[in-house]
Prior knowledge:
Blueprint: E1 3-9, H1 14-23, E2 27-34, E3 45-49, H2 55-62, E4 67-70, H3 80-100, E5 105-111, E6 124-125, H4 135-154, E7 157-163, H5 173-178, H6 182-194, E8 200-205, E9 214-215, H7 234-240, H8 249-252
Parallel strand pairs: 1-2, 1-4, 2-3, 4-5, 5-7, 6-9, 7-8
Helix pairs in contact: 2-3, 3-4
Amino acid sequence: LRFGRLLLTGAAGHLGRELRPRLKRYCDTLRLSDLSPLEQAGAGEETVVADLADQAAVESMVAGVDAIVHLGGVSTEMPWEPILAGNIVGLYNLYEAARRQRVRRIVFASSNHVTGFRRQDEVVTTRDPVRPDGLYGLSKAFGENLAQLYWDRHGVETVSLRIGSSYAEPKDRRMLATWLSFDDLERLLVSSLTAPVVGHTVIYGMSDNRTTWWDNRYASHVGYRPQDSSEQFRAAVEARQPSLDVADPATRYQGGAFVTQGPHD
Ligand code: NAI
Ligand code: 15L
């Protein structure tokens, strides 16, 4: 796999910084974009500081790229205004630019919070109805629907990754089920960028964890094979968090603490 120019949005963020050195291996030029300042461009890199809500800025950010890994936007429960700007208007601007400029494929960082109000004793497939756990999850559901429209109507392909919890290690018991290692995230991105035909495919981004709430049976054509598991961290996580209150909504629902957080407290 080698792209000419690949665009990574949200490049100054937690996952963007992790992926910057990794994605360079798969392209001649990696264009990095964020609202926040970016580290200076190295060899084979370009940097663009732009607000996703600025249509003209997004148009030039997308110019000349072969594919997009879209991580940019609000990544937690927040007031409506920043979510509207980054995740609704921003998504529209990105897909319009991709349509006009004939970008073939986008990998969209959606989130498990699209189905965060599913219970932890349910197993959900990517074809089950969504159940967002807040404005953030709702905005990601919009993003997935937008991606579907741009495939059906304009032929722009997308893999929507419902990422679980991508950190160096799972931080709590919930993340034993939702954890996605950085190496598996890279595998998922490479599979999503290179699978021959994806149309609009939704896939949960998780490692090969022993406990899971998600079933990727409708995304096997993506060819993602996780190789890590949260199991190696289980003993330490359970020692840190010895008991769970099953009456707590954060324990009952897949979205964890997100189901009670945010402007609606
Ligand atoms: P992050 O918050 O660290 O990074 C997001 C980046 O987007 C930030 O650098 C921010 O400056 C930028 N951004 C926000 N609003 C913007 C705007 N209007 N215009 C341009 N840039 C803007 O989040 P993280 O953890 O790196 O996540 C990356 C993506 O993956 C996000 O879309 C998030 O929703 C998604 N995701 C991440 C998960 C995780 O475990 N880290 C889990 C599920 C989804
Ligand atoms: C997300 O969507 C967030 O971006 C991230 O901060 C994590 O909290 C993750 O979900 C999660 O559910 O653990």
